[in-house]
Amino acid sequence: MMKFIRIFLTVLLLPAIAQASAIRLKDLVEFDGVRGNDLVGYGLVVGLNGTGDGLRNSPFTEEIMTNILERLGVNVTGEQFRPKNVAAVFVTATLPPFARVGGTVDVTVSAIGDSKSLLGGTLVMTPLNAADGQIYAVAQGTILAGGAVAEGEGASVTQGVPTAGVIPSGARVEREIDFDLSSLSSMRLALREPDFTTAGRIERAINAEFGRNVALMRDSGTVEIDVQRTNTRSTAHAVGRIENILVEPQRKARVVVDQRSGTIVMGSDVRISRVAVAQGNLTLRIEETPLVVQPNPFADGETVVVPRTGAAIEEEEGIQLAEVPETTSLSEVVAGLNALGVSPRDMIDILKSLKAAGALHAEFVVR
Questions:
Q1: 347 three-state secondary structure
Q2: Which residue among 38, 263, 292, 346 is least packed, with the fewest CB closer than 10 Å?
Q3: How far is CA 261 from CA 182, 289, 331, 364, in A?
Q4: pTM
């Protein structure tokens, strides 16, 4: 028996990213004060088909179930009950900015005990608290889980994650967050990817939009707006004009590789210095030739199999690039390696070596 192991991975190589184009400010920055707030709650899911928590392993489930029943006027003190159709869960949601009383938000429900599935369950009314401990929403409804479970006498199969699900519009807002946008005399824009060049372009674009100096770049990640100088009816009107201004962002040269899938993504502005590269593939050859040894006729003994293994490493002829011009972009080098048949896995090793040699002028990110 012979085995061959080829050391490379054939996967998709994504093309180089094109030069950045003009993008709306709402996709580049966050407006100071305009943010969501995280909510969390602890509740109970009922109506499961025998896939709930085992109350011996999850005593907190029995405790919350007892509290709910007693609040509804059912006295269960001292009773012994072991239902299999209930599960304790954490309920999480994000309260969007300017949410008003009576509005609804989506919630995520996740089992915290040993429940096998939340499929078909119903979340009982659960208050959702913010970081200040106040209740801002109440969640209830039927859970939509994204997994499936099937089991028989001797085996079971699970697809997806049936112990977590969502309830679209499952929480109703009961309290508003105090934030008066119209009272702001100035507002800061926080860049999602801080960069001095991008911040300067945002400053110039906003000043050009209003015809006066209303924006000032504070640092690489902050641009401050003087709302009073915009001569708009309100702060909301000023934000509405600002968020649709088009700006061409400037980003760092970056190469991102994923070793697990062999994916390589790079920007078109990545450059390399003059360099030479030699690369080759290795093949491991493992050969099994077992030998059967038998005793002589009419002799005491038994037949045995003696293993014999032969192993060898073969190295193919390398691919060479000599004296690559200094003005060559990395995307052109990768295109040349692709034409020579270099696999993505080997290409990742070449890029690592280029970065280690100081010839790759870009941020190198390995995932």
A1: helix
A2: 292
A3: 49, 35, 19, 17
A4: 0.68
Mind listing the pLDDT tens digit for each residue in 249-299? 988 888 888 877 778 887 777 877 776 666 665 555 556 577 777 777 766
pLDDT at 1 over 70: no
In whole angstroms, what is the distance from residue 304 CA to residue 286 CA? 22
DSSP string for 254-300: EEEEETTTTEEEEBTT-EE-S--EEE--EEEEEEE--EEE-PPTT-S
CB atoms near residue 248 (< 10 Å)? 13
Rg (C-alpha) for the chain, rounded Å, is: 32
Higher-pLDDT residue of 229, 276: 229
Residue type, 79: E
Positive or negative: CA dihedral 302, 303, 304, 306: positive
Q: Please, are residues 22 and 308 in contact by the beta-carbon 8 Å criterion?
A: no
Q: Contact 263/255 with Cβ under 8 angstroms?
A: no
Banded pLDDT at 139 (limits 50, 70, 90): very high
* Partners of residue 245 on adjacent β-strands: none
